[in-house]
Structures are given as structure tokens and as C-alpha cells.
Amino acid sequence: MRINNKLYHLLMFIVFCALFFVLQFASVGGYIYPFAFAMMFALAWANQRVWLLCPAYIISAIAKSCTFESAINALCVCVMLALPYYLHIILKKNMKKWELGIYAALSQVSWIVFSALSGVHPAIIVSNVVIAELFLYAAIMIFEPIIIRGFAYKLTSLELVCGGVVLMALSNGLSGFDLFGFSFLKLFVAFALLSISYTSKTSYTTLIAGILGLGTLVASNNPIFVAPFMLWALSIVAFKSMKRIYPFLAIIVCEVVIGFYFKLYMSFGLLEVAPLLVGALAFLVLPKKWYDNLSVLLSSGSDRLAVKNMVNRNREVLHRRLNNLSEVFFEMNSVFKKLIKEEMSPEEVKNLLYEEVRDGVCKNCPEYKHCHRTFSADTKKMFCELVTISMERGRITLLDFPSYLTSRCGRVNNIISEINTLTKQYKNYASLVGNIDNSKLLISDQLGGMAQIMKSLAGEVDSLVSFNSAQENKIIDELAYNNIICTDAVVYDKDARTVMASLVVRSEDSARGKLAQVVSKVCGCKMCAYDVYPSTRAGLVNVNLKTSPRYDAIFGVANQAKSGATISGDSHSVIRLDGDRFMFALCDGMGSGEKANEKSTTTIGLIENFYKAGFDNDIILSSVNRLLNLEKDDIFSTIDICVVDLKNGIADIVKMGAPSSYIRGEEECKIIEGGALPVGIIQEAKADTKKIVLSEKDFIVICSDGVSDSFGSDGELKDFLLTIKSSNPQEYADKILEKALANNNGYAVDDMTALVVKIFES
Q1: In total, how many domains does the chain have?
Q2: What pTM was computed for the model?
């Protein structure tokens, strides 16, 4: 390992020497040479070894100009880099970029002195320092992501621009660096254009060709290389989609045509083609993995049209399938409703049981013809009356028989026994059939509810997703400025009011508040994160954001079990639902103690899960009512539900047997009266539903009858609510409970619960 480290450091030393040597020749108009020392400071910022950079820079400076002034200038540059660098390490204080800029400017003190003594114009001196500072920050912007972050993250737009500046400086320095006619500039440009064409968009290739040509123009005020580089780029991109050998051949042929046919160069021979051939061969022999890493860096993230089209295509298919599936559930709902048997009318029941008694008891009686033929109407009427009495009271006795029948009928006891038996059997049968029909209705309701949910989901995916590539790239760039690494971003409009964004960021960046701030700024609306989950790549997570709703809600709850009871029969639920909805509910199990608590807990659990699944109010309450009606335990529950749409502040208040609720605003308090029967009493119980428009800072108060009954009337409780000045919903609930207990001398005559929710602008 130590040998490998030594070889690595030796290789990096050679690279630094070559890089600084080339940049020593890079100039602006042949007068200003700011690039070499700025590059050294930028590499130091990118965590490169200062003890390698300094000797490499001194060697390159002396190799370019072996004079006393060059040596002093190089030494001054290295001292102003190494001294502050190691001083910051000793003091354990991180160096800031602006501090690095100051040290870089101070490193030019000796050069400034020598230049001033030599009569160099002050404008050139100032320009040298200013351009060096600008190049320093450009180099930092490109080296920081490549060297520190690695090849796994693509570059932002600004980082790509800074990379172009560095390339321009390199082409500038190489333009005056030939070895026996062998142009290192051509070698570098050929390799760069071929590599960029192979790993990025076509426009990048022509852009880089122009930048590299511009570097030679800045160096010598001669555009001789601008046209050839652009022609090279055009010849390469023409064969971009083919195998690597075709762009390789294209650039060679293009250079031969430029030199021999168009004669763009002052002199041209086969030796001038050699640098191009070496650079193109290097492009061919490098492994594909290297280009894969480079493609990640240069990817702009905007060429994902195929993926986006696939998303919309999948949404279209999903919409069609959900629609078809909803039709299946609607049809099943219809079939189950048809399976429900119609109940017989009371008259039909009496006639049926009369015939059963007649055939079972009277058929073989000697008086049969006399009773059931001569006096058939009177006998049938009398039997039906006996059946009615038995149905209502549960049984009949001898006292219920008319005296004229008991005096001449010898089978009175048999008739009494038969009627009592038949009515009891019919009641059991009717109850069984009723439960079966109730179960069928319950299943039918659920099938209808599932059909509606699928229909709703089909509607959500009906429209095409409108992606916003410009915002995606801007988000990545803005996050990079804030030191948040985002490898990918997707922004699309879910509907007219909701913007969705999905980001892939580092795990440590997912909880930073700046994340939502940047996305909000770019999207032009307040965004909030609602989901964070691991990515397929280690160290990264997906963060989903969406338009923040206009309103938000907080709640407080205060409760007290009935005096003497160990557990309250009241249960409550507060949950957030999909679609930016907020649901809170209060269920009061009639009575107190464990049975009431079990009933209310079951009821509130059913309601909560139904709402989470997406069922609407009518189906939820109908289904809960039918389920509880099957238990036949004579313990019922009142339900008080409020569902607030946080996007527009509209609330649905649903009540079944619950006392009044209250909307306390800043100036007034509204009473929302209750209605309907508690759940579980009858099968067809209907809920009382009201729609209310809420305002900012409104309090919604719902309470069990233990609280409401402690006040003389709804108006008295309303007046008390207006006296509460607290803005905290928990304090609000506590004060309501305290007052309710005080009204009963501190005694809880029933289970007491006060649930208070405050609405406010998010």
C-alpha cells in the first residue's frame, strides 16, 4: 500500500508540473499571465497535497523562465499558500473561500513590485490580479464537485460554465506550446471533443469547440484555430450515434481536408496530423467505464423525454384499468342488492301463521268444518289477533282466548302452544334473514365504495403529467449553491393547484430546512416535504415535496372519566388524510366503563380506517352502522366527525346522535346543532351532515354529552367559549373541561371529553 501511495504521489506530482507548466504560457493578449498560480490555489482548496503543489509550481515557473525574478515570484506564491494553509490546520480553523482569495492576491506582492519597477502599466497589474481571482473561483467551482464529490454527481449549469473557463485556459496555454512542430493543443482538443461528443449532447461538442478556439484567440489575438475546431466538432457529431471508430475517422479526414484542400494553416504536412491521431487513438483505447462516469458529470437531466413519455403512457393505462375495475365493482354492488329478500308484510305473516296453526292443529278436529268453513271469517280474524298478541308480547295465554271459543273448543291448549312456538320460530327466522340481508347490504356498500374510490383514482391519473425540465435543472443548481447535493430532480403539475417535486439527495441533506426553501423559490409557491424514503444507491434518499396547503391545523384534547369509573367510554381520533385533509372525530359509547370504551374504540377505529382508505362519508357511516347493528348488544355510540380540506378551509361536519359543535371565530361563535340517531340502533340510520367555510384562527370545538350536559344550554356553552382568550387549543380544551366540572361541583356525572382544533394559515 505504501508503494502504491508513493507511485500515486509521483504521478500526481508529474501531472501538476505539466499542468502548471502549460498554464505558465496561458495569457491574455501576451501581457497578463494569471492562470498558473490561481490554478494552484484552486487545487489546494480541492484537497490536493500542498507539499506536492508547491514544488511542482516552482519547477514549472523556473522551467518557463529561469530567472531570479521568476524564482522569487514562485517562492512568494508558494509561501502565501503553504503558510496560511498549515496555520489553519494547526489552529483547527476551516479556511473560507474569501480568505483563500486574499492569500492568492497577497501571493502576487513580489510580482507586483518587480512589475512596477520594470515600468509595467498599473492597469495590467490590476487586471492580472482581478482576472486571477475570477479564474480562481471558476477553477474552485469545477474542481470541488469533480475531486471532492466524485464522478457520481452531475455538474450544475454554473459548474459546466466554469469547466469551460478552465478548458479555455488550458487551450490558451497549449496554443503556444509545440514540440518540434508537434501540437499538444491539437492532441488535447481532439481528445476533448471526441470524449464530450460521446458522453453528452450534440450542442456541448460545438460549444466546447468554440470555447477551446476562443482560448487560442485570447492568447494571441489570432482566430486561426476557431474555424478548424468548429469543423472538427461538426464532423464528429455527424457520426455521434455510431461506433467510436467512425467519429475517430471523421476528425482525421476533416483535418486532412482542412489542411490540404482549404489550406487554413500557414503550413501543413503529415506531422501536423500526428497530434490529432494520438488524441483520437487515446479516445479509442480508454475503457467504457471512464466515459460512463464522464456522462454522469455532463448530463443536464433534461434528456429524459422517453422516461417522461413512459410515465404518461403508464398513467393512461392505469386510468383505463381503474375505470374498468370500478365498473366491475359497481356491477357486483348491483348484484348483491338484488340478492336481498323483501320482507313479508304483517298481514302476510299473520296469514302464513294462521294457515300453519289451522293445518297443524285443527285439520283433524271434528269441528273443523264448522269453525273454518261456516264461521271461517270470524275464526281467521280471531287467530290473526292471537298471532298479533303473541308477536307483540312474546306469548299468549288462556286469558287471551275469547270465552265463546274456550267453551266449545277442545284443543285450546294445543292452539296456544302452536301459536307461541310458530311466532318464536318466525322471530328467530326473521332476525336471521335480517342479519343476512344486513350483511349483504354491508358488502354491497363496500363494493360501491371500492368502485367510487377506483373511479376517483382513475380521475386523478386521467390527465397527462406536465414535467418542467427548466425548473428541475434550476433546482439542482440552486441546491448546489447551498451545498446540498441533488443528483436528480423531477417537477410536475399534479393539478391546477398542486406542484409535485421529487429529489434525490444525500441522506444528511434531507432534513435541512434550506431544501424546501430552495424548491419553493424555484417553483414559485410554498413547498413542503411529505415523504422521505431510501434510494437505490447507498447514502442517497428520495425526498418528495408538494405545494403546501393554504391552511394547517393543531389540536388539543381534555378528558375525564365518569367519577367512580376507571376508564372513559369516550374515544377520539385525529389524523391527516390524503389530499391535504385533516380529520378529527369524537365517539361517545353510551354508558361508561369498559363496555362503553370497547364500543367507542371499535367505532372510532372503523371510522379512522375507512377514512384512510378513501371512502366517502355516507358509505363510512352506513357501513359502521350496519356492522355495529349486527352485534345486538344494546350499547350504542354517538359520532361527531369533522373533515377539513386544508387547501380551501371547507369543513364537513358529520353527526350521529352527537351534541352540538361550535365554530369560535375572532368575533363570534356559531352553533352547529346535532341530529340523527346514534350508530347501531337501526339499520337505516342516516347521518346529519353540514358544510362549513372556515377562516384563519377559527377554533372548532366538539365535545361529548358529559360536557354539553354540564351547561344549562347550547347558548350558555357558546357564551363561555367567547370568554376564552387563549390561542392555544390545548389550553382551550382544558378550560372547557374545568368549567364543565365546576358546573357540577367538581363531579363528573358522565364521561367528559372536549376536542378543540385551531385552523391557521400555514
Answers
A1: 5
A2: 0.55
Residue 142 near residue 159, CB atoms below 8 Å: yes
Within-domain flag for 566: yes
Q: Strand runs (DSSP E) across 548-636, as ranges?
A: 551-560, 570-577, 581-589
The pair phi, psi for residue 759, each rounded to 5°, is: -100, 135
pLDDT digits (tens, 9 = 90+) for 408-458: 676 777 777 877 787 777 777 666 665 556 666 656 666 666 666 666 666
Domain residue limits at 740: 551-761
Is the domain of 542 the same as that of 557?
Answer: no
Question: What would the grid cell of residue 674 be?
Answer: 346535532
- Per the CB < 8 A criterion, the answer to whether 679 and 637 are in contact is yes
Cα(445)–Cα(333) distance, integer angstroms: 7
* C-alpha span between 423 and 639 (Å, rounded): 36
Q: What is the pLDDT of residues 497-514, one digit of tens each?
A: 788 888 888 888 888 888
- Copy the grid coordinates of residue 701: 370545538
Q: 105, 129 in Cβ contact below 8 A?
A: yes
Phi, psi of 700 (to 5 degrees): -105, 125
Grid coordinates in use for 526? 410554498
502 and 535 co-located in one domain = yes
Same-domain pairing of 9 and 101? yes
pLDDT of residue 303: 45
Q: What is residue 159's three-state secondary structure?
A: helix
Geometric angle at alpha carbon 370, from 368 and 372, rounded to 5°: 60
